[in-house]
Predict the 3D structure of the following.
Amino acid sequence: MFESRSPRVTVEGFEGPLDLLLELIEDQRLDVLTVRLGDLADAYLTRVRGLVELPAEEVASFLLIASRLVLIKARSILPQATTEELASADADEAELRQRLLEYQAVRERATALRARLDQGQRVYHREGGSPVELPPRGGDSGALAAAWQKVLALARTAREPELVTPGERYSVEERAIEIEELLQAREAVSFSTLLLERPTLRFAIVTFLAILDLFRRGVIDLDQEALFDDITIKRRGVGQTSE
Amino acid sequence: MNELRSAIEAVLFVAEKPVTVGELVRATGARPREVEQALAALEELRGSSGLRLQRDGDAWRLVTSPESARAVTAYLGADRLRISHAALETLSVIAYRQPATRADVESIRGVNCDQTVETLLARRLIEEVGRAERPGRPILYGTTWEFLECFGLSSIDELPRVLTPEGERLDESAPREFAEPIE
């Protein structure tokens, strides 16, 4: 499934001409180093003939090895061979043997790698690619404590009216219009000032959402000097108001 | 020394990608030689833990130990790598001979390797590492971090050794620059 288009000889599971030759040697329990390759010519040709479904583009490479085997065999059995011819036959055989040895090593390495895969002893790196979360710059526990104090102070003043009027309703739209009108009169106002009007939690939330909405619409600019500091709300240039 | 070792370990922990010795030198202010020594010490120290150091060239990173693979695999729900024998053969030629060209692989395997090379590239087990200085300037391939990971290797030096029939270590006698293709 993972490699359906790879070139390979399917019928008997050989990967290629060298693989086939190596199988032949190993089947007969011969040693690559000492086997007389010419003796394998007949057996090789028989096996190639057996590979009926050999892909056309692979036939040539099989025939090439087969023809070399036949040539080696022919030279070795010709009685009238000159020393030159014999030397050439030896060189040819030695070269093919070298290739077989190299291929044998590759096959063994592939087997060794397969063994590692089968052991399942792979390793992993830390996944994700996102950096370790860094706290925002400038934050310190003192500022956080101060902010918490403000919230507590707000909560203290807020408790009473909230108990009295549990059903209070503010709409973000209304609050946005209020803030916009306020900013017509004065250019800037701080968030804490806006909250003073009705210091309840719900009012604070609605006010905050209204500010976000105004900012989104480009009506106001927001400025905060430092983390947890008060937010200054400024009117953006005249004529940029909504509608 | 211990301090430097711990600092390097910490940097490797937060690093998103392999960290070079040069980057460690800049981060710690130590000398390259000291960093190398600390890395070696760290490597030894990590031997008994669930994390290991992995090296490719002069870049380092922290990885899980091969021994803890089962648990990590189960936790991540990762799939085991499936790879055909043909692709493994091509991979082994490239891994042991790297950098290697397609022609190198083909001359050894005796078959066309285009598909297996494509597969290995797609799996990010190999990558292009340059071009050979020979006619046609063929692409040179080498293995990747993913390769080291999949096979649980700390570095390329840890590739399984294969012995010749005479007990000779093939891997060491293998020429670095591969001969011209035969034929």
Observations:
- Chain B has two domains: 2-73, 85-173.
- Chain B touches chain A through 58 residues (CB under 8 Å).
